[in-house]
Amino acid sequence: MPQVTLTVNGKQHTVTVEARTLLVELLREKLGLTGTHVGCDTSQCGACVVHVDGIAAKTCTMLALQADGTSVATIEGLAAADGTLHPMQEMFREHHALQCGFCTPGMVMSAIDLVNSHPEGMTEREIREGLEGNLCRCTGYHNIVKAIAAAQPLMHAK
Amino acid sequence: MGFEGIGASVRRKEDVRFLSGRGNYTDDINRPGQLYAVMRRADRPHATIDAIDTTAASKAPGVVAIFTGADMAKEEIGGLPCGWQIHNKDGSPMAEPPHPVLAVGKVRHVGDPVAVVIAETKQQARDAAELIAIAYTDLPSVSSTTDALAPGAPEVHDGVAGNLCYDWHIGDKAVVDAAFAGAAHVVRLDLVNNRLVPNAMEPRAAIGDYDTSSGDYTLYTTSQNPHVIRLLMGAFVLHIPENKLRVVAPDVGGGFGSKIYHYAEEAIVTWASAKVRRPVKWTADRTESFMSDAHGRDHVSTAEMAVDKEGKFLGLRITTLANMGAYLSTFAPCVPTYLYATLLAGVYTTPVIYCNVKAVFTNTVPVDAYRGAGRPEATFLLERLVDCIAHDTGLDRVEIRRKNFIPADAFPYQTPVALAYDSGDYQTTLRVALKNADWDGFEARRAAAKSRGKLRGIGISTYLEACGIAPSAVVGSLGARAGLYEVANIRVHPTGSVTVFTGTHSHGQGHETTLAQLVCDQLGVPLSQVDVVHGDTAKIPFGMGTYGSRSLAVGGSAMVKAMDKIIAKGKKIAAHLMEAAVEDIEFADNTFKVAGTDKTKSLTDISLAAYVPHNYPIDEIEPGLDETAFYDPKNFTFPGGCHIAEVEIDPETGVTEVINFTAVDDVGRVVNPMIVEGQIQGGVAQGIGQALLESAIYDKQGQLLSGSMMDYTMPRADNLPNFNVSTENTMCTHNPLGSKGCGEDGAIGSPPAIMNAVIDALREYGVRHIDMPATGPKLWSIIQAGQTKMAAE
Ligand code: FES
Ligand code: FES
Fold first, then answer.
1. Does this complex have an ipTM over 0.95?
2. CA torsion angle B130 B131 B136 B142 (round to 10)
3. Does residue B1 register a pLDDT over 80?
């Protein structure tokens, strides 16, 4: 069986996988990183989003082998070592942007990429459109949009 | 510590866990030696199973076992039970055909499980499941609600003639007919309440874990009510006594009703884990969720209102067909009856009401409660009907509502359909909503939109719901086979911190915070020293779980009762320690005080004395400070309010944009305003989904066309507006908190507000009613037809 070598949250792993193993399966089942979720089977929901080389990617739609040589960041690696939350995590908490928490890891990872890729800042409408790849059934998005808007200046100031 | 008690928008205790990927959902749990189960499901709606050949599948790599319905039948495994029995008009009980865990003899809907493959890995189980050869003989099927009762329709169950589950009614038909006879206007409306798929973002999952040394079973499951699952599965399906069966519902990623019910897969993995003597995990793919999670709504109704010259409602007459799907899910029969027809008075003084409901079987996924359950159907029907009355009589739609409201001084108010409302003030929620939505300024906005080529409309819905379910004796007399009280255990630890064990279950509602706030409020313990434990039958005495917006009104009330016991016992201990009479001890702000003196003892002094009883009235009271209470509500609670939607339709595409959404709700006492607003926002989003986007569609051949998230339109961020949400509360009069519940309001009040706005936007085309969902193509066709007609005139 093939092997894949990748860095996850700063730590290198070499893992034996089936050719058909998905990146999300590698993260959840081989590395025990269960913060990345699976909410669908048609690449619609975004519960599985992580950063691959700094860019948001749906790990349900990517083979583990495609991640060979990459650096992956998951929700587990986001907070500082002392537990200080990333500004996006902090704003999600502050603005009650999560209820059941299932969409949250993917939502936060997508939101960070969205903000990073818009240094000029986004309007509410642009944030809403930028979230087209992520579904949340609980919140109605109102507070998620608010949290992302509030995180923008904090992240750009850094 | 700032203010953390009732009324504080404290940030949630559970959030850091979820935000850092440390939630513990069922699929995140792995048991040592665990195997994986994959279901082989029917790919057709109705067929006899002639043969199941598992030879090739059994030999596939990694396969440990394959079981079919016949294997379960051999061991006398029971069918999945229904928790509610409705009686027909003539007093006879409803038809209640068997619901085998794995199909026996026939399959009755696409997705019906036929066999389970258990293998070392999920991939191996999936591969092997495809190797099972099933010989079917197809039978004709019926999927639409209206076709089910047609003469000669294919029958879903042998022995259920004409697919009729029950023919039930409420009210006195003769009296209602008489009210119609003298009416100035009779306004009629035929309408459909579209079938929905709940789609909680976490797919269902279950792990059965049989302990070969003790003979104990543990089931980890995505459930809103683990004790109910233990009761139903243990007593009726697998025949395991409670002491040998533990059910854990850990973090659950949304439910909205769909995770109330006892599902086949829970029984399969629990039973199979004892067979293979290893833990067995099953997790649904989303496609499986579409064809196996209970769906919601699916009513077809005719409504008629008798109205006098001034616009007062004289009588309401309704017939409804409700789709049960292929089998009766746990609470299915009560949804179109006691959660629907009893709500048909709504916020109005309609003096007489008659409703006839026929529930039918079809070759579709079972239908059960989905956020609101029966109450959204009642509200949609009433609020569309009221707008049609305005349309037909020329009366103003707001004035008609005002004129027919139950006045604020009329409570308690007995409706003609069984319920007795305790409190409410509909004029106030209406007035505030009209103001917040700037109703009076709308015509200017309509004109401005018109100049931009857009069709703008505004719609209103004034609604009420019954929740906080439910008084056990009342629901028992209506056919419930369980009590609906709630249980709380409050444990004050020796040094004064508190653990709450609640029988309710949080799957997004934020109980770990809200329920802890009740302890801050009543016992004066800081939030950081209160933990809430839920979702484990091994830890919590008992409970009925979370649905019907009941957790605070019923579960919170149980906590209040248990804390009352803590305080009463604490007073006795304090009286002993401070050498005073018990009657002279007061308790407030974490402190016991001898009235009129400065002698005090903190709760911690008392709890320490209770657990280290050296100086203690040991002959009179037991050590420890740990109390349990069961609370059975005296009545339902009746939240209500007013929702106003403002939409713009692009005539070129038919696409509707929700521009503003205003909700003013009466939810009783609010513990955490931030959480209440979040609940209402989420509910409104689901209501807008139903109104504009979502629909579960079966074709004539019984295939579920909208069977994935590619085909079933879930609301996304850019489909929704910001919500203007607020509350105007009157207190519930019969529970100690005054809380009514807020989880379902958004989904109940919003669909008619949206549809009334859409129809208002299209009024120049003579549109009187449109069924949901108001999709772009549907509205585009209506606009095209309207324009053609107008051009011809
Ligand atoms: S799991 Fe839904 S998009 Fe990846
Ligand atoms: S918080 Fe539950 S799905 Fe988003």
1. yes
2. 0
3. no
